[in-house]
């Protein structure tokens, strides 16, 4: 039993490290290969790579906060949240594998962006998508990870709830 729990923990930590590693490698490449605010356009200008340093949170929210407030809201509280999320999936062994994956993606993305804020003073965002009226803000791999993880957790919860509310059928034999 302890071997299974150890293996589960190692798999979780491997996925987390891989997630953070992909985020940090992609940001490092952008920081070193693209000048700040320069752009590379692909797919008929629908996909753009650029180097944007975001000192705030999502869409630069909180950018103008004072340093102590910014430190609390953008570093300390998110760090506590991702540590709680990591502890939650490590301790709660009855979660579905898909929920664990979703939470780990959220935690990994959170760690990636928090690391950037602490080490670099800003988060490196570099991807932008525009198709017709659909347009994103500039984002990074950590943001993708957080969004994918959130989608996975919500979808898994929805499917579980739907399964619980479906009427149970019984086979009647004549």
Task: Describe the protein.
- The protein has one domain.
- It is built from four helices and four strands, in the order αββααββα.
- Helix 3 (97-120) runs antiparallel to helix 4.
- With 174 residues, it is of the alpha+beta class.
- It is 61% helix and 13% strand.
- The relative contact order is 0.15.
- A four-stranded antiparallel sheet has the order 1-2-3-4.
- It has helices at 2-33, 67-91, 97-120, 141-165; strands at residues 39-42, 47-54, 123-131, 134-135.
- Strand 3 and strand 4 (134-135) form a beta hairpin.
Question: What is the approximate shape?
Answer: globular
**SS field, number of helical segments:** 4
Helix content: 55-70%
Catalogue the unreliable spans.
Answer: none
- SS strand fraction: 5-15%
Whole-number mean pLDDT: 89
**CA gyration radius, whole angstroms:** 20 Å
End-to-end span in angstroms?
45 Å
Output the helix-strand order.
HEEHHEEH
Give me the side-by-side strand order of the main sheet. 1-2-3-4
The total tally of domains equals 1
Biggest sheet architecture: 4 strands, antiparallel
């Amino acid at each position: 039993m302890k071997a299974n729990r150890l293996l589960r923990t190692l798999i979780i930590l491997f996925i987390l490290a891989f997630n953070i590693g992909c985020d940090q490698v992609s940001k490092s490449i952008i920081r070193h290969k693209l000048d700040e605010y320069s752009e590379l356009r692909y797919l008929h200008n629908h996909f753009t790579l650029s180097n944007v340093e975001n000192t705030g949170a999502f869409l630069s929210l909180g950018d103008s906060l004072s340093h102590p407030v910014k430190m609390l809201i953008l570093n300390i509280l998110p760090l506590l949240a991702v540590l709680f999320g990591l502890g939650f999936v490590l301790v709660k062994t009855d979660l579905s594998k898909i929920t664990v994956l979703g939470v780990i993606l959220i935690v990994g993305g959170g760690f990636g962006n928090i690391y950037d804020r602490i080490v670099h003073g800003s988060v490196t965002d570099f991807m932008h998508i525009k198709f017709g009226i659909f347009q994103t803000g500039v984002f990074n791999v950590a943001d993708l990870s957080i969004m994918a993880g959130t989608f996975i957790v919500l979808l898994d919860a929805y499917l579980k709830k739907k399964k619980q509310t479906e009427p149970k059928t019984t086979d009647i034999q004549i």
